[in-house]
Amino acid sequence: MRVCLAIALALVCAAPVPALGQGRKKMAATPPLTVTRLPNGLTVVTVRTPTPGVVAYYTLMRVGSRNEVEPGHTGFAHFFEHVMFYGTPTWPRAKWEDAVKSRGLESNAFTSSDMTVFHLSGTAAALPFIIESEADRFQHLTYSEAAFQTEARTILGEYHKSISNPLLKMFEAFADKAFTAHTYKHTTLGFLADIQAMPGYYQYSREFFQRYYRPDNATIFIVGDFEPKVVGALVKQHYGRWTGKSFQPRIPVEPPQTAERTGHVAWPTPTLPRLLVGYHTPAASPKTKDAAIQQVLGPLLFGPQSPLYRDLVLGRQLCLDLDDTYDDLRDPGVFGYLATLKSAKDLPEVQRTIDAAIDELRAGQLDAKRLADVQSHRRYRVLMALETPDQIARALAAAAAPTGDPRTLEQRLDQIAKLTVKDLLAFAKQHLGKENRTVVTLAAGVPAKGGAQ
Ligand SMILES: [Zn+2]
């Protein structure tokens, strides 16, 4: 049974990692990759790694909840994450699942705001099967209206399960408050009313698939132990007849925010209080340093080595955890933090303390040595997590999703290395003003009159 890993929102909290030993002079590097493009627009990225007998195969479709522009039709990108496992006439679901199992392959998929990613990993001997069957399902996916309706109900169940988690409910409330026009207003799961109405939209689902599951919207990452010539020929043979051009949706531009927005989620049962704050910030464009700045600013302000973390989590112990919530996005998104507190009475003090640290940064106070440490740590952290073909393929696909460029991971690490104190200060001054932010709190209690949020 496949386990759905839909990410409820683009805001993914990075888990803290231990500090790396000092004195390592030589920085590891991202593995060299080869990028080719088929005449139909399909991008194929191959990376050979010294991992005998092991491969990972990732298909990045640049479609996520961001693409859901039509009112009443949110949730369809995530829906296709599920439906892509329904199979084709050549590879019906049960036959395909048996074939995957008998070869000992791991297979799954995930969806976020900007991407839907399908992946398999395991023995290199299975690569011809993977290429053939993956090419087949992206071109010949078949599902009946009855199957569609069954899956829509499964997704409704997934929504109810997710939303019983206070954190997911909080992210949903935050997105709805922070965005007024852009499709980042809804989470990857979609609005509840739309999911409830989904069983009636079989025809629309087919249109959605035709719009976005096109070769020019896809990038395949093949990482591990393989013979490039053999793999290249197989990819050409099986994907060469995939046709069509992807639809370019008109996604509303989020207007500038001019005043702070606030919200509160009153949770009906006992839970830890939380504070979620996000500032509107620029997209992860390959043309700017903005994504690199935000990837460094997060750990700099809120990471385990930061003064704020040492004060609020380790020192005064008002918080159980503090972390940044930044994730690279294709369009302007949010940069911010999530604090998990022990007691709701400390919410004002925690926010006041964090505000003071941000104000200091905006006033021009940043230690160059500390910035250099965070830059180095951030790069090591990414590179040290590139051990297996699966980890490499996943990191390459996730980095490429917002930009469309398979080399984004390497470029981003280079950008991080070159950031200066001036870059960080200018960014903080421009974007971390109170008028540009949304503050959502969550605590156990009774919803206020007129709604909880
Ligand atoms: Zn799901």
Structure description:
The chain is α+β, with helices and mostly antiparallel strands and 453 residues long. Helices cover 41% and strands 17% of the residues. It has 15 helices and 11 strands. The structure holds zinc ion. Zinc ion (ZN) binds next to α1. The site of zinc ion (ZN) has 6 residues, from α1.
| Low-confidence segments | 5-26
Question: Numbering strands along the chain, what is their spatial order in the largest sheet?
Answer: 1-2-6-3-5-4
Largest sheet: 6 strands, mixed
Mean pLDDT: 92
Helix and strand succession? EEEHHEEHHHHHEHEEHHEEHHHHHE
Give the number of helices: 15
Look at the helices and sheets and give the structural class.
alpha+beta
The set of bound ligands, ions and cofactors reads:
zinc ion
Strand content: 15-25%
* Radius of gyration of CA atoms, rounded to a whole number: 22 Å
Indicate the percent of residues in helices.
Answer: 40-55%
Tally of DSSP β-strands: 11
CA(first)-CA(last) distance: 36 Å
Indicate the overall shape.
Answer: globular
Summary, kept brief:
The protein has helices spanning 76-83, 93-102, 127-140, 145-163, 166-178, 192-197, 202-212, 228-239, 290-302, 307-315, 347-362, 368-384, 389-403, 408-418, 421-431; strands at 34-37, 43-48, 54-61, 106-111, 116-123, 218-224, 261-267, 274-281, 319-324, 333-341, 437-444. The protein is an alpha+beta fold and 453 residues long.
